[in-house]
Amino acid sequence: MKYCTLIISAFLLMFSTSTEAAHLSESLLVTARLSGSQEVPMVSTNATGVASFRLNDSKDTMCIDIIAAGLSGAITGAHVHEGAMGTNGGVVLNLTNFINGNRIRAVITGTDLTAEKIGKYLSGQYYVNIHTEANASGEIRGQLKLETDKGFQANLDAGQQVHTVVSSAKGLGAFTVSLPQQKLEVKMITTDLSGAITAAHLHYGKVGVAGGVAVNLSSMIDGNAIVGTVDISAVAGLMDSLMAGKVYINVHTAANASGEIRGQLMTNSNLVFDGMMDVNQQTQAVVGSMARGVVIVEIAPTLDTVWTHSLVDSLSGAITGAHLHDGGVGVSGGVLVNLTTGIMFGNEVNAMATIDVSLTADLEILNKLLTGNVYMNAHTTMNAAGEARGQLSRIVREGYTISLDGVQAMTMTSGEGVGIVSIDRSRSNAHYMIVTSGLSGAITSAHFHNAEAGVSGGVIYDLSGSFGLSGTFDGAFGYWTDLDVNTAFAAANELMFRHDEVYVNIHTMANAAGEIRGQVLREGMCSNVATEIDRTNIFEEVRIFPNPASTQLTLSVDLKSSFDGNVVVTNTLGQVMMVEQVTSNTDLQNYSLNIQGLSNGLYFLTIRNDEYEYTTRFIKN
Known about the structure:
By secondary structure, this protein is mainly beta. It has three domains: 28-147 and 398-521, no CATH class; 149-359, no CATH class; 539-620, Immunoglobulin-like (Sandwich). Helix content is 9%, strand content 45%. It has six helices and 44 strands. The chain has an eight-stranded antiparallel β-sheet. The radius of gyration is 26 Å and the shape is globular. The N and C termini lie far apart (69 Å).
């Protein structure tokens, strides 16, 4: 019976991981909510704003969209500054030249986006500051933060107990707090305990101090592991204590009723990936083992260093080799990173490797991690092909961007808006921030609708309560979760977002059917790599020249078969600037586009029909 349970659990894990991985892309979304209260010193203003900074697949371009609404006057300056929350710092990026009314849109690359600067964007060391004449030092400001759930790690042993314990037991735990701070996910393994785990808790207390129970994890005990998710929405002050390093986990046994091993939960600004390891994830037969473990991979915000930590219990023998491999769930692939030099004590791996994302091979490693296509494999003498394997899943959320205007709603209005959505890896909640400006009157209602661009669809979630519903500018900041008592967020809703089939509609009294609308886009238009809908794409090779171009752009396409479709040029906001129809009679090996009428800047050229799509980028100068 136990064997059947393990097989069923492995199947469920594989299904869950594979469906999660399908909604993970290679880009990263950094966002900010802007307000006067974040200024130093604080500014009294009703103005509000939101900013999205999307780092593209190649990690060499960032697309920026900012809106500032309700300001005391026109924007006189806009910058990205270096500084933590509550501190002032110098300018690192001047966005003033990109101001257009209360909107700022830009694309940065090159020296504006070095590895060091990417690291500071991803680790929350930059903020956006919007200046006006009345507030020359800044009227509203917002700390830039990666859209991610929060990860914590604990290394457990007897030496951290405040009472005397004689034990060689160890433990490794990965803890993830959801962005809405409603749920705590736990993945933990222990080894060499004096007996079965009898209880486990999170306690309040800094290093070397005993404290009261914060969260009871005992219901998650599964042999030598602690695995599960618990509701922490009612645990007041837990997140503050976690961020201050004042929470520890205590594991109890019969021989050590006060706790045999303990570990402090610690966090950092690295990108975190984790997974449970076991024999059932292997694609080949494993003999003589019921091994289980935990693996945690961290990547520095500068995207140049990879750390791997793992602990495995119940192995048939000492680990002889360990690697990060290329492959999704149920797929075996080649070695990406060799971890063998990091093997310790026969059942631990603690390794560090460096990567350079300017190199195609290293960029591929990072992007495979981001899309859930990397696993760790631990090898032993008895199971040379691998004894314990664990698929890695990121805790960084999948990001979506929104640009709202009257054109999409088919109204004559000067109203506009900017928004973001991010969804967690478990597809259980969506974080949204939306700011609107220049409306004809107060918002009467607002919703997420289900339909692709240019098509009307039904309401799937009511956003009205998140807006202030007063004035010609407004903002909504909140979460749509699976615990919502009216409309619970479900996997089907995530699929709608994933397929770009959700839009935001903002209603006013003057425009009851909707004054402004914006499609929620998964990738937006911040990519400089080809994207293919069909893996059997008919595009053999696509070349555009010259690039940059000023008047004429020549397109040369080698096709595997005839093609009928369109050539579409869009800007970085996803707005269509040109559409030209092509047929099987069109000479696509020497196709000329007149781009003289386009403004200078970055554009995306897409060749597509209902079956195939190819996107690349060019610069107009």
